[in-house]
């Protein structure tokens, strides 16, 4: 029985460049100047939406670049309705994938409109999510948020977080610190830049609550800023009495 060894991938001129230059090339292609809105897996693509309403039925595909164009039969104008994803670069070969995948997820700002969207990303990209370095998230009470925040502890490159707390939370009449998801979030460490927005409830006693800004000294904001910005090696024991 003979064993066939895999031949190294020939990257042409790219393989002759030092790794620093290859990384710079990957950055030019993968890093975007604006935040990336993370979409649900089942959301309709631009192509699918166009085809559902298009009446011309004249579409030309440029196989060289993978784009799809719609031609107006009256004016002759051409509209590009579908272009290849920047992530297509990662499908070129395993070598480029392993060299470039961390650049896309670490150096782009990923925008999640809900905890559910973040969970969807973590579940569907289990080999990629731990590369995240800069994310924004809109948060409101949800039963599985604790598991989602626990998964973020695997993201050793996560340095920037923007969290917006949904205003409807205040209708529950309880401080944010009582939420199980917040308890898990407070265990996260190593955040260098933390931006917070929203409202919180402060317990005044005898069943009375006051709505305050998140950065109020009595609210959750100062607690999160203190705990999430600690070094990753520092682990504290959480208790509800520690925030008072």
Written overview of the protein:
This protein has seven helices and ten strands. The chain has helices spanning 19-30, 46-53, 94-107, 115-124, 145-151, 180-185, 220-228, and strands at 36-37, 59-62, 67-71, 78-82, 110-112, 134-139, 160-165, 193-197, 199-205, 208-213. It is globular. The model is unreliable at 1-6 and 235-244 (pLDDT under 50). 27% of the residues lie in helices and 20% in strands. The chain starts with 18 loop residues before the first helix and ends in a 16-residue tail after the last helix.
Keywords:
244 residues; alpha/beta; 3-stranded antiparallel sheet; 7 helices; 27% helix; disordered N terminus; disordered C terminus
N-to-C CA distance:
70 Å
Number of continuous helical runs: 7
Query: Which regions have little confidence, pLDDT < 50, spanning 5+ residues?
Result: 1-6, 235-244
Main β sheet profile: 5 strands, parallel
Shape category: globular
If you compute it from the alpha carbons, what radius of gyration comes out, rounded to the nearest whole angstrom?
A: 23 Å
Fraction of residues in helices? 25-40%
- Derived from helix and strand composition plus strand pairing, the structural class reads alpha/beta
Mean pLDDT: 78
SS strand fraction: 15-25%
Oligomer status: single chain
Overall strand count = 10
Order of strands across the biggest sheet? 1-5-6-7-8
Order of helices and strands: HEHEEEHEHEHEHEEEH
